[in-house]
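EI: anyone free to look at a 290-residue chain?
SC: sure, send it
EI:
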Amino acid sequence: MPTREHEIPLWLVQNQPAMAPALLESLGFEVPRHTEVLNTSSALTNCDPKEFNSDGAVVLRDGSKNVMAVVVERQNGHDSDKRQSWPAYLVTLHVRLKCPAMLLVLCPSDAMARWSAAPIRTGHPGFDLVPLTIGPSRMPKITDEQQARLLPELSVLSAHAHGNSDPGMLKVVVEALNSTAATNRTFYYDYVLSGLNEAARKELEGLMAVGTYEWQSDFAREYVGIGREEGREEGAALGVARSVIAVLETRGLAPSSEVRERVEACTDLQTLDQWLRAAMKVDRPEDLFD
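SC: here you go
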């Protein structure tokens, strides 16, 4: 599978202004009135040589006034050092934007969410940070097609968490995929598939087949195929190859023409899957092939 089942992918929490406020609402927190949601820099660096870089950060604005900042973190494993940095993230963002700041942690399991939610003791009275965390059980179920089109990122997370138990959500997530930018669809589709069992995967692939679901985008024709097994496999290979290149570019690693040509020429899905996983971790594009 292109994405590990027990990981929250980095691309899903970056550059998605609508996601953080939507998830905060799902936790029952009142979001202040705002007229604008903008990406803000996720580089939370102070004068110390040590850099604090969150996975994502957004700011809610009411006109020209900042009313809330949200640091978005993905927590795929037990990392106590990273948790100790979270108070610095909030303080730095609070000072820079001069508005209340909150921390939202996305977790692949409820056990990880409970671990991440443990208070972080700073030593100052009343200044203990209790992270806001969301695991699968707290992920809202998006079952309305209109809502899925308005909040496609939340719909993708919802389908990944609940698609096996509620197959009806798969048709809804297709609506979400169809409303996103073409550059994001491969990422989102791969992520939804990584959370599904075999039966649900086949159901989603069937929905996305042009002959079954009237989705006329180039992505559906190219990635899923046109109803023939060979067309589906060829389209899937091309889609994963483009995902490898896109992940590298998203991480700021510009692949050379040689790397690009080798990836795009590969038609073996197992090899491409390995390269996609490696693309999320390597220091250089050339390291994909090690």
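EI: Strands lie at 36-39, 43-45, 51-53, 56-62, 65-74, 101-106, 132-134.
SC: 👍
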